């Protein structure tokens, strides 16, 4: 069975069983033939989306060190670009650019995903070429279009700092090394969770945490089959999927690049051409532009594009508005403050 046929069946299955999580309490149907939001009671059991835990327990000292490194431009060859340059925590963990800008103004080849909640992703990068955050760190530091540095150069710079030397010695017996730098940054990144969104509170039993329209948006999100790919704690990030199930997205967009090949660049398997890791929808209203190519500048455009190419459905303005209202409820809090 091909990937495309598999996901068509998966979407159909979600559509068929999705309504089972909403129980009728009195008559009333909308144009989908499903109970309206005013006539359903939410069943919290077996939801396709799970709430983010309120806290994780990383090593506090390592987190502090990793946070320093994450914001330090010394990790780049010309001391101008830090991890935070492309993953700004004040901008939803992204840079809100179509592609990021590296040293000497070099343009990247793909849209920078959010770093928030990255601990819940099954793999890293759009093509999923590495599994761990430690492995992920190698690429931006050494990539010509990003930090364009080398590990010996990064280590040399950091060892010149008495503060870094003492901080590393406090948690690592062997001090400043490549592995320890990666471990500290990855530990900080794993602390970047955004729990307690209004939708999380809804999942945890607060029926008033989201409005009737937002609940209806969630119902349509499920009924149409969006949850076939966007589910779990991160509302995505745990599977791969080809872009263009019901249409040729890349032919219609034009100007195909090497980055568009997705997983094919990793595996060399033809079945993986145009296959990407499904992105998380957590805090999605803050992370425009959308898709690996940054081609959708608004959330409305992104939702309607997904409807057309992934669901084979022309979403109405009402559908789009309601789904976006649900997506708004996925914005969480970082360190107790709303993003």
Spell out the blueprint of helices and strands:
Layout: H1 3-18, E1 22-24, E2 40-42, H2 60-70, H3 83-86, H4 133-142, H5 151-159, H6 162-171, H7 178-190, H8 198-203, H9 212-223, E3 240-242, H10 249-253, H11 264-267, E4 275-277, H12 299-310, H13 317-328, E5 333-334, E6 337-338
Antiparallel strand pairs: 1-2, 3-4, 5-6
Helix pairs in contact: 2-7, 4-7, 9-13, 12-13
Features:
single chain, 339 residues, mainly alpha, Cytochrome Bc1 Complex, Chain D, domain 2, 2 domains, two-stranded antiparallel sheet, 5% strand
Summarize the structure in words.
It is globular and about 60 Å long. 43% of the residues are buried. It is built from 13 helices and 6 strands. The protein is mainly alpha-helical. α2 packs across α7, α4 crosses α7 and α9 (212-223) crosses α13. The strands form 3 sheets. A two-stranded antiparallel sheet has the order 1-2.
């Amino acid at each position: 069975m091909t990937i495309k046929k598999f996901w068509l069946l998966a979407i159909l299955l979600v559509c068929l069983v999705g309504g089972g999580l909403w129980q009728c309490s009195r008559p009333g149907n909308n144009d989908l033939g499903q109970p309206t939001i005013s006539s359903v009671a939410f069943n919290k059991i077996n939801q396709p989306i799970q709430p983010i835990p309120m806290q994780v327990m990383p090593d506090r000292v390592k987190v502090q060190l990793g946070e320093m490194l994450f914001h330090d431009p010394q990790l780049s060859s010309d001391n101008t670009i830090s991890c935070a340059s492309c993953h700004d925590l004040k901008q939803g963990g992204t840079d809100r650019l179509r592609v990021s800008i590296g040293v000497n103004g070099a343009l990247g080849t793909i849209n920078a995903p959010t770093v928030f909640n990255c601990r819940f992703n099954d793999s890293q990068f759009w093509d999923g070429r590495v599994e761990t955050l430690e492995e992920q760190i190698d690429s931006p530091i050494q990539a010509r279009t990003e930090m364009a540095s080398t590990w010996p150069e990064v280590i040399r710079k950091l060892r010149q700092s008495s503060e870094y030397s003492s901080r590393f010695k406090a948690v690592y017996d062997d001090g400043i090394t490549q592995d320890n730098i990666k471990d500290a940054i990855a530990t900080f990144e794993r602390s970047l969770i955004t729990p307690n969104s209004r939708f999380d509170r809804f999942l945890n039993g607060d029926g008033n945490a989201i409005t009737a329209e937002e609940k209806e948006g969630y119902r349509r999100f499920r009924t149409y089959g969006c949850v076939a790919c966007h589910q779990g704690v991160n509302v995505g990030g745990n599977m791969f999927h080809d872009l263009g199930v019901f249409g040729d997205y890349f032919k219609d967009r034009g100007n195909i690049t090497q980055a568009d090949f997705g997983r094919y660049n990793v595996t060399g398997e033809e079945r993986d051409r145009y296959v990407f890791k499904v992105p998380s929808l957590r805090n999605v209203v803050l992370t425009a532009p959308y898709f690996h190519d940054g081609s959708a500048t608004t959330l409305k455009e992104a939702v309607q594009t997904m409807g057309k190419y992934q669901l084979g459905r022309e979403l109405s303005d009402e559908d789009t508005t309601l789904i976006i209202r649900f997506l708004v409820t996925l914005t969480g809090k970082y360190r107790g403050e709303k993003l």
